[in-house]
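User: Hey, quick favor. My workstation is busy. Could you predict this chain's structure for me?
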Amino acid sequence: MTVHPGLHWTVDHITAAMRHGMSDGLELIHRWKDRLTDTWNDPVYAGFWLDLEGYEQKARTENLPELSFSLFREFRDTGERQAYEQAYFERRGRLVSLGLLVAASPSADRVHLLEDLIWRICTEQTWCLSAHIPEGEEAGARKHIDLFAAETAQMLAEMIMMLNDMLDKRIIRMVKAEIEDRIFTPLYREQRTYGWEDANHNWSAVCSGGCGVAALLLLEDEQLRAMAVQHTIRSMSAFLSGYGLDGGCAEGVGYWVYGFGFYTYFAEMLRLCSAGELDMLSESITGAIASFPGNIHLSDGVFINYSDSRERETIPSGLLSLLSERQDIRINLGLHIPLLSQDPCHRWAHALRNVLWTNPAKFERAIESGDPGAPIYLEDLSWVIARGTLAAGEHKEVRVAFSVKGGHNAEPHNHNDLGHFILHGGGENILCDPGSGEYTQAYFAPGRERIWQIGSQGHSVPVIEGTHQQSGRQAEAKMLHIKHLSPLGVEAEFDLTSAYPEAPTLTRYIRHLCWNCPPGASEAVLLLEDHYQWRQPSGIQRGEYMNEKMRVIEHFISRIRPVMHEAGVQWEGNNAVVILHYDAELWDAQIEVIETVDHDHLPQKFYRTALFLRRTPDESGNSRDHTSKETRCRLKFTIQPR
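Assistant: No problem, here it is.
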């Protein structure tokens, strides 16, 4: 499917459009300094500039971390990547800070420090992360292009175009020569093939977008520049193919920021350099994609975080402002200018545009209304989202929300989490998703589902006959039924049988969820029913006790330590309480403490509540031995203000 008109732009069309707009575009980029200077004494940006000055102080007083072979080799030798990447991103953080500080408040001392940093970046053996260099190809790492090589090229290209009247001409020539050798020659002149070029996830957008921006600014050959634009559009088309018409990002909001952010950054640079004629944000699907963060924002800056995403993501204020203007989307977050220190990768593209593009007026009009809105079904992702507001007394309200995930177990940054759900109350996900773990070699290798954050053992889904969900495209949640319940409720039903192919006697597994939170209510209710069908095991007569593997274990994940009651479990959040009600005659409950490490290498503690089914009720409500061919497990969750 053609996802934007750019696929039809010819070299002649691109060349003519850019001949018309390039001069004014480059002049506008040079004047970016004026916008940065205007914010220097603006209280809205005071924290942003103070944060950058902290990096500047480190650049003046501490040695720049070296990217040594000892650090480089760790990933291939041990699977660890943290030490190399800490040094790599510290170097980028200092360069980003000095580049922006020189633009906003220049001094000879700052310029010289910036030039030294540019020199050091230009002399790196490779601009790639060590984890992204294919094994055996270390000798050619200089001309390998990964996410961060592309980002480095874009950063340096934009920096020298904005500061070309301040920087030593020898530094400018060196930057141009390095980008030509590392990026333009292999990618555009020699037309080497890179795996990301046709990827349907963030790599295609970031890699092609970063390289494409550098090409727009630095390539002087008009025909080669137009060919570079065509190359970028092809990769951007591959990126958009990973989205359905619902605009949902299977990788989560963090990777939405990364992938669609760099799509937008290239699109706006191309529009700028073509006097508005070449517009990659004109297609309707980009409007749906732009709406994704608002669709999955629950309250108080907390998001649905399936896959490798965080609950609290820092969404670039510049990107939101630009998309609000271009796509007419509603911002439902308060204004916050992200600090460079809040981005572990210290990205120039985000930081610069947070100053250039942020429009505080867009956020002033974005205060959340009392209406939580109707439930949302992102059909292509198979995510259900419903919100509500609880009356908490004294004219106070508590925002609550529910989400459940379908999809399949071969998605980008996949977790085995079909049927997994989130319960949100008062600004926190009380029953939560674990998010991403520490990125190591094993995290992306075969057998990765053994890692707690990735496997179904780290999600609110059952263990069936001792088996967990399996990886792969064949493990799919089939949506059987979805219905909006008046006024703000929703019910959904999934067939999850294919996720448990190793369960020896399972023939069908259906998960049914029903959420209700009427306006003005004092509590919200989620009813969960898991329906299992079994075949008779060989060698066991009807009515005999089935072996231990036939048992069902329901898991529920939270960061909050639960409190056990006689027939319930309670998770007490800061502003809301979730209570699980169950029949104590049918279930045994157990709390497990899970200690792990998150994506940023920080320790995490989760609490996994396990309900062990020991008996199943017959339809009259009487309990009997667990020997039936059908098992219906019914559980009730309530959310109340604290």
